[in-house]
Specification:
The complex is a heterotrimer of chains A (343), B (260) and C (268). By secondary structure, chain A is α/β, with parallel strands linked by helices. Chain A has 14 helices and 11 strands. In chain A, helix 4 crosses helix 14 and helix 7 packs parallel to helix 14. In chain B, helix 6 packs antiparallel against helix 9. The chains are: A alpha/beta (343), B mainly alpha (260), C mainly alpha (268).
């Protein structure tokens, strides 16, 4: 009889255990794989202390994460998603996001105007902005580059690296090239024609940041359109490189945060978003070069500022692509692109 | 016994150099102390090995990969050995079709399998992530266990089990007491091959992993998409050493080289 | 040999593979044949209407086929040497052959990027020995993808052939030679037919592996050398075109079955 009582107690304790555990809520964040150790230090750990909750990450590249979100739409296991703006619009169009209550975001008024409602449907807020400009070798003919059109210089043949259309930089590149050469339509026909002209002299169309870094490090590439977040790793290669703000401008790209439809932790999600937008967090992240700030009141220290997209000059030079246009046209651009390369 | 002919030996050496050469690059690069991956390294040290042990994502996913690998290997053996036995000891119509069916997991592109299984496991059955991984991997490993164990079974004359049965054993007893000990080399080889396949599997795992649960190769891939440093070379070297240890131990205990 | 189907041995595996693999995959692939609710081949015709797609398909077949042939040519003599190596070295050799399979495909591909780059070993040798005046563009070509895939898949062919050759009674070759066959004849007429199973298995594994490889073509070839699998990923991840993706998957499946059957006929 005593044994049975013991077993009952154990059983109750075992059942109670998880029940006690369940007090600690988990907020699931789907995000990029880069710099999560810095985010842990400046965002996740402080936030966990504040909310008494756990943060669980799902990392990976944006397209895979979006595919999973879509597959799990009826049974989502993610609460907050961090993704590039036009993919967020894609997700929103597919009914995967829910509306954000802007009244809960106290730090929103410190965000740059362009970052507050980038999708224009109140379902996302930007948490960082980065520029896509040009990185060049200063000790080669590429050192003279000052404009997007300079990529067509014959002395760069065989050392020009471009971004592939499947990545964000690739889209930005197409957009700026088309613009620089006078294109007006959204079909980017001018851009495609011009890019086709330099195809033979292009080393490759990079698909991953690390690949791009590798090719600079191995002297294969002298110039490439690069996203600002990649500048830190490029500096580490030790090659003589510099960042060029072309005279036609740089493309501004935003990563945004959205709340997944069906999430049971929307309240915590709002808190995380507000925390991420706060001046202190944005400054800390900026100083460690994790992300360029979206909060206009951020003042990073001078050495960091040099490597970020920050300051009136940089921000004013930014040209934005409309996410609606990108979301709508992208599939067609990819087909055109593949055709252009295959010819 | 004919001695090894010169041209054949030359080909073998050529093949081995070709297969192992790139690994030398990785091996050396892992011991680099440079900031980024450069070959040959300008400085040497163990710093990147040390760095690896501090990356939490690698540690957690290593454990997950081990658990999933061991679990799915055992399951694949449990499901596959009976099939191999049936294929070798029984003669029935539809053997070829069966073999073909069981080879399907090798042929369908990983991304399709991943998406299909995601649809099934998550949406239809709402299974926990690790269980989904286990089931997915087991299905992928069955072709290997059936083939490798089958190959060693075909080396074992079938009259052995018949002899045991004549001497009074049931078929089950004959299997466990006579057949199994004789094919243990094949089973060991199948286990090693299956485990390695599961451990390195990427496309299917990509879709079956979820928040907080990931496998080592996926974490490596994610890391390599953005960072260009020698830690991946160091990690690859560690994994190779780990696998060599597993294979060597199995070889010492069970002797697998004849059945691979 | 018994001739009743031993269901109790086969059922668990059949159930697992049938229900948890074949059904879901078939359901997904069925999308290739469905247009607006009814069956049809419109997706297939639309796929091949795009000249790029046909080009990608032929390129994939070409590279995979070449890799299969070359690996067979290299691995047959290599395997024949390997089976004659004294037993105590065999374990080590087998281990060395399996070793490349242990290394993550990403790391292996990166080592090729290092080796084939402008400053890499290959170019140093070519320029140093005077074959070329200046470093050649080896990366991001079909050649680079071929080499990468060959290295990835060759252990599979080697191990299959070794396995088949081991089952060959050692006196068979000697007997052939006593009866007057020269080296080539004893190979073609005796060894080849007796080990054809190994060639078929190895060939199928190599071909299938090449055709479904993703990381190696993606990193070593890049977008200029698009292959079926990289195209498939693009269709899923970028274009969200599951119909086209299913078409490609069905094509891959059919191609592998055909190649397998062809190999079986040819070695007869």
């Amino acid at each position: 009889m005593k044994r049975r009582r013991w077993m009952a107690c154990l059983l109750l304790a075992a059942l109670a255990g998880p029940a006690v555990q369940a007090e600690t809520r988990s907020l699931v964040l789907s995000t990029y794989g880069l710099n999560n150790d810095l985010f842990k230090k400046h965002v996740y750990d402080p936030f966990k202390a504040r909310c008494g909750c756990e943060i669980v990450l799902e990392t990976g590249n944006a397209s895979d994460r979006l595919a999973k979100l879509e597959a799990r739409r009826n049974n989502p296991n993610v609460d907050v998603v961090q993704i590039t703006d036009f993919l967020a619009l894609d997700a929103s169009n597919k009914g995967l996001l829910q509306a954000i209550d802007y009244t809960k975001l106290k730090n929103l008024d410190q965000v740059y105007d362009f970052g507050r409602d980038p999708l224009r449907n109140q379902q996302a807020v930007a948490y960082t902005v980065y520029s896509v400009g040009l990185v060049v070798r200063t000790d080669k003919p590429s050192g003279a580059i000052a404009s997007w059109k300079d990529l067509w210089r014959p002395d760069l043949k065989g050392h020009l690296m471009l971004a592939n259309i499947t990545g964000n930089q690739g889209l930005a590149q197409l957009f700026m090239v088309d613009r620089a050469w006078g294109g007006v339509a959204t079909d980017m026909s001018t851009g495609f024609t011009k890019l086709g002209e330099v195809k033979a002299g292009t080393v490759t169309y990079y698909t991953q940041t690390a690949q791009m870094t590798a090719l600079f490090a191995q002297d294969e590439a002298w110039v490439a359109p690069v996203g600002r977040f990649g500048w830190l790793n490029l500096k580490k290669t030790g090659k003589p490189l510099k960042w060029v703000v072309p005279k036609e401008g740089q493309v501004g790209m935003m990563n945004v945060m959205g709340i997944v439809k069906g999430s049971k932790n929307a309240d915590l999600a709002h808190q995380l978003i507000d925390f991420w937008l706060s001046k202190d967090v944005q400054t800390a992240l900026a100083n460690d070069l994790a992300d360029s700030p979206i909060n206009r009141n951020t003042k990073p220290n001078p050495e960091a500022a040099e490597a970020l997209t920050w300051g009136k000059a940089q921000i004013d030079s930014l040209v934005f692509m409309k996410p609606e246009m990108v979301a709508r046209e992208r599939a067609g651009w990819v087909t055109q692109w593949n055709r252009m390369i295959a010819k | 016994m004919n001695p090894i002919s010169r041209p054949a030996l030359a080909m073998l050496i050529l093949a081995l150099t070709f297969l192992l050469g790139p690994f030398i690059v990785i091996f050396v690069a892992g011991f680099s102390a440079d900031e980024t991956l450069a070959f040959p390294p300008t400085s040497y040290g163990l710093r990147w090995f040390g760095y690896l042990f501090g990356v939490e994502a690698f540690q957690r996913s290593f454990v997950t990969s081990l658990v999933v690998g061991a679990g799915s290997t055992l399951a694949a053996l449990a499901f596959g050995v009976p099939v191999a036995y049936a294929l070798s000891r029984y003669d029935f119509r539809g053997k070829d079709a069966l073999r073909g069916l069981l080879t399907l997991p090798l042929v369908v592109p990983g991304i399709i399998v991943g998406l299909a299984l995601l649809d099934l496991m998550v949406l239809v059955y709402a299974l926990p992530v690790t269980l989904g991984l286990l089931i997915g991997h087991t299905t992928l490993l069955i072709p290997y266990t059936v083939r490798v164990v089958g190959s060693s079974l075909s080396n074992l004359r079938s009259d052995i089990d018949d002899a045991a049965i004549t001497l009074g054993a049931t078929r089950l007893q004959a299997f466990f007491k006579v057949v199994l000990p004789n094919i243990r080399g094949g089973v060991a080889a199948a286990a090693v091959l299956a485990f390695i396949t599961s451990f390195n599997q990427v496309p299917v795992s990509l879709f079956l992993t979820g928040p907080g649960v990931s496998t080592l190769p996926i974490e490596m891939m994610a890391y390599m998409e953005t960072s260009y440093d020698p830690s991946i070379a160091a990690l690859s070297t560690l994994l190779v050493l780990f696998t060599i240890a597993v294979v060597a131990a199995t070889e010492k205990l069970l002797g697998i080289s004849k059945y691979v | 040999m018994r001739s009743r189907i031993p269901w109790w041995l086969l059922a668990p595996a059949l159930a697992l593979v049938g229900l948890l693999f074949v059904l879901p995959v078939a359901a997904l692939l069925a999308g290739a044949f469905k247009i607006d609710g009814h069956l049809g081949l419109a997706h297939f015709t639309a796929f091949f209407d795009e000249p790029l797609h046909t080009q990608v398909y032929w390129r994939t077949l070409r590279i995979a086929g070449l890799a299969t042939v070359v690996s067979a040519l290299v691995c047959y003599p290599a395997a024949m040497a390997m089976v004659k190596v004294p037993a105590r070295w065999r374990g080590l050799l087998t281990g060395l052959v399996i070793l490349p399979l242990m290394v993550s495909p990403i790391a292996r591909t990166y080592s090729w990027i290092v080796l084939l780059g402008r400053n890499g070993l290959a170019n140093s040798l070519l320029v140093g020995s005077g074959v070329f005046d200046e470093p050649a563009t080896l990366l991001f070509t079909e050649g680079a993808v071929f080499v990468g895939l060959l290295q990835l898949m060759m252990p599979l062919m080697l191990l299959s052939l070794v396995s088949a050759l081991e089952n060959l009674p050692p006196d068979v070759l000697a007997a052939a030679q006593t009866l007057g066959a020269n080296r080539w004849q004893s190979f073609a007429r005796v060894v080849l037919p007796l080990t054809q199973e190994g060639l078929i298995v190895g060939g199928t594994l190599v071909f299938t592996g090449c055709v479904t490889a993703f990381i190696t073509p993606a990193l070593l070839g890049g977008p200029k050398v698009l292959m079926l699998e990289t195209l498939l990923y693009q269709k899923v991840n970028v274009a969200s075109d599951m119909a086209a993706a299913s078409v490609i998957a069905v094509l891959l499946l059919l191609t592998t079955i055909v190649v397998n059957q062809v190999l079986k006929r040819v070695s007869r």
